[in-house]
Amino acid sequence: QLVESGGGLVQTGGSLRLSCAASGRTFSSYCMAWFRQAPGKEREFVAGVNWSAGWTNYADSVKGRFTISRDGAKDTVYLQMNGLKPDDTAVYYCAAERASTYASRTSKDYDYWGQGTQVTVSS
To answer: Side-chain half-sphere of 41: how many Cα atoms within 13 Å?
Structure first.
């Protein structure tokens, strides 16, 4: 089970930190990722991390502004979002993929999903 939290309303240039708490199984052999979906748009990859190796990858649109990390002791993945823009407005989802390399950028590759948390950036 994946449970997201930390979404909300923020002004342009502001910051938010999303959390994804994992439970019910061991995710040490998984990649964890954040996806987002804006109204009328397809779900898109934002950032991913290999749980055991710590390898990270990012969408070009968020590189340098967002940081993904994980805390093994808390079984939690974070997405620190800085320099937020109105285009970042979306529902953000946490997902888990059984993989041993970098996180896939394709949503169909993921086995588990959270319920999503809304992020709204006002101009």
So the answer is: 14
Look up tokens 């990859």; give the residue: 45
Phi then psi dihedrals of residue 21, to 5 deg:
-90, 125
CA angle 80, 115, 77 (to 5 degrees): 30
* Cα 55–chain centre separation: 14
Sign of CA dihedral 69, 47, 2, 27: negative
Using DSSP's 3-state secondary structure scheme, residue 100 falls into: coil
**Alpha carbon distance 120, 92 (integer Å):** 10
pLDDT in tens, 80-120: 999 999 999 999 999 999 988 999 999 999 999 999 999 99
Phi-psi region for residue 6, left (φ > 0), alpha (ψ -120 to 50) or beta?
left
Residue type, 27: F
